[in-house]
Amino acid sequence: MSITLTENAAKHVSNFLSRRGKGVGLRLGVRTTGCSGLAYKIEYADEIHPEDHRFDSHGITVVVDPKSLPYLDGTELDFAKEGLNEGFKFNNPNVKDECGCGESFNV
Q1: Can you give the pLDDT at residue 94?
Q2: 62: exposed, middle or buried (C-beta count within 10 Å: 0-12, 13-18, 19+)?
Q3: 60 in Cβ contact with 94 (< 8 Å)
Q4: Burial status of residue 84 (CB atoms within 10 A of its CB: 0-12, 13-18, 19 or more)
Q5: Any alpha helices (H) in 45-106, and if so which ranges?
Q6: Which of 36, 31, 27 is nearest to 3 (CA)?
Q7: pTM across the whole model
Q8: How far is Cα 87 from Cα 93, in angstroms, rounded to an integer?
Q9: In angstroms, rounded to a whole number, what is the distance separating the alpha carbons of residues 58 and 77?
Q10: Could you report the per-residue pLDDT of 31-63, keeping only the tens digit for each?
């Protein structure tokens, strides 16, 4: 089981955590929603719960809850700037189909 960040994503998270002044890393998960079934959740983690899975990538701790891990296993998280838009991009090998708007997926 693994979750990784690209160098760009790790730099972005590190800079944000520094400006924020607190946090132990990044928390990833999935929730049921949208037209394809699942959507990504991403937030900054202030603590690690005993049941959480922890991954370290480029100096950043990534925390995933046990229910989300099977859907996220093998995912690489990137941070990309495309024109005026910027944001995180999930490269998830488990995704079988995505909705047209890109907000949800299924495995």
Answers
A1: 78
A2: buried
A3: no
A4: exposed
A5: 69-72
A6: 27
A7: 0.84
A8: 19
A9: 12
A10: 887 665 888 899 999 999 999 999 999 999 999
Report the alpha-carbon distance of residue 66 to residue 14 in Å, rounded.
Answer: 24
Q: Are 62 and 69 in contact (CB under 8 A)?
A: no
pLDDT value, residue 106: 64
- Helix or strand run (H / E) with residue 12: helix 7-20
How many other CB atoms are there within 10 angstroms of residue 12's CB atom?
A: 22
> Residue for token digits 């924020």?
20
How many residues appear in the chain?
107
The one-letter amino acid at 13: V
- DSSP structure class, residue 11: H
- Alpha carbon distance 64, 92 (integer Å): 14
Instruction: Write out the H or E segment, with its range, that includes residue 7.
Output: helix 7-20
Strand ranges in the chain using DSSP code E only, listed in sequence order: 4-5, 25-33, 37-45, 53-57, 60-64, 76-82, 85-91, 97-98, 105-106
